[in-house]
């Protein structure tokens, strides 16, 4: 009987340990990186996020890598200017136009466009919402991702 109780205790301890280890592997912030959203016949995926230094010490550049697949039958356009980053204080940050590497182009039906958008936001780790808000076309269709910006 004593062996049986020790096996049960060991089993419960093992389950608890597995649950604790699994919980440590998740982040407290949100992470929609790698998730695909569809709007305006475009399947948009936030592929990667990193932070870079800004010329302003109180700010940082959020470099967000996108992959955009045109699932429609007509050519469509997409670019960094179609996205805004909404910070925790509710302020929306448009594309940082001073960065020459912002992506944007026409996408033929069935083709994919990959590129990065740069957005200047307050410095420090924070949860932000990336919002697809096309400047032209079907502006009523939006898509959002909640991500945690890493500290630079």
UniProtKB/TrEMBL annotation:
Transmembrane feature ranges: none
PROSITE patterns: PROKAR_LIPOPROTEIN
Superkingdom of this protein's organism: Bacteria
Keywords from the UniProt entry: Signal
Domain DUF4352, chain residue ranges per copy: 32-136
Signal peptide from the UniProt entry: 1-30
Coiled coil: none
Protein name: DUF4352 domain-containing protein
Organism: Listeria newyorkensis
């Amino acid at each position: 009987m004593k062996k049986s109780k020790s096996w049960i205790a060991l089993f419960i301890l093992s389950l608890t340990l597995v649950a604790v280890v699994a919980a440590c592997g998740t982040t407290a912030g949100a992470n929609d990186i790698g998730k695909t959203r569809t709007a305006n016949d475009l399947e948009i995926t936030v592929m990667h996020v990193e932070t870079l230094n800004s010329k302003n010490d109180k700010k940082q550049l959020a470099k967000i890598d996108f992959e955009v697949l045109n699932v429609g039958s007509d050519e469509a356009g997409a670019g960094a200017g179609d996205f805004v980053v909404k910070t925790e204080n509710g302020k929306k940050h448009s594309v940082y136009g001073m960065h020459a590497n912002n992506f944007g182009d026409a996408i033929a039906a069935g083709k994919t466009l990959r590129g990065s958008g740069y957005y200047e936001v307050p410095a420090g780790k924070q949860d932000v919402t990336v919002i697809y808000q096309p400047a032209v076309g079907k502006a009523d269709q939006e898509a959002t991702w909640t991500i945690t910006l890493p500290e630079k």
